[in-house]
Amino acid sequence: MQHSYHGDTFGAMSVGARGVFNAAYGSLLFDVTSIPFPASGRERATLDALESACRNENPAAFIVEPLVLGAGGMLMYPAWVLREMKRICEASDVLFIADEVMTGWGRTGTIFACEQANVVPDIACYSKGLTGGALPLAVTLCRAEIFDAHYSKDRTRTFLHSSSYTANPVACAAAKANLDLWKDQECHRRIAAVATMQEQAIEAFRVDPRFDCGAAIRMEVQRQSG
Ligand SMILES: Cc1ncc(COP(=O)(O)O)c(C=O)c1O
Fold first, then answer.
1. What b-and-e string marks burial along 18-49, b requiring 16 or more CB atoms within 10 Å of the CB?
2. 7 in ligand 1 pocket by Cβ < 6 Å?
3. What pLDDT score does 129 carry?
């Protein structure tokens, strides 16, 4: 999706927005099809573009930051759009990859942003809040068929890539401790309390003509689109 950020490996740069951060690697990145960001009032154009790409370009997968594009400028879009994107991918047999590196672990109010759209991704990427931000760790989860397709005693069919500290036990212990916190109802009560407090506090600003966040986002999207 336009304005996305997915990381700094060649694959991640290829599927993210092209710009000053990756211009030096431009010739090495592979081609992808981008769909426009679903700015308020222009959601249908995004869904049509996804439908057309799925129908005409035989993509392997669709990758998206659910509900909030972080590095792209905290651009937000509603849960129904995410749900529709998943429906389109499913109908076309295109894998749906949710990059929840930024949105995961409560950043949007639910543990995962996809929950708000009732979407179960085929592949999901988590990091940052996975350890409560205390230690570096990332995980990629996928449906069993995808896992099995990369799991074989035949080394030519196995996904062998990893890095020096993969599954580092100290980082995994931090993630496990974080998961325990999430199981505690107190954590969910506090999220609900903060959400209510913010809803109430924001009321005072709603009457201010400068409050139109939608307009601010539209202006930012227009600015970035040139
Ligand atoms: C949505 C998203 N995906 C991927 C990444 C990259 O993660 P990493 O630095 O662990 O490769 C980031 C980092 O900010 C991110 O916000």
1. eeeebeeeeeebeebeebbbbbeeebeebbeb
2. yes
3. 95
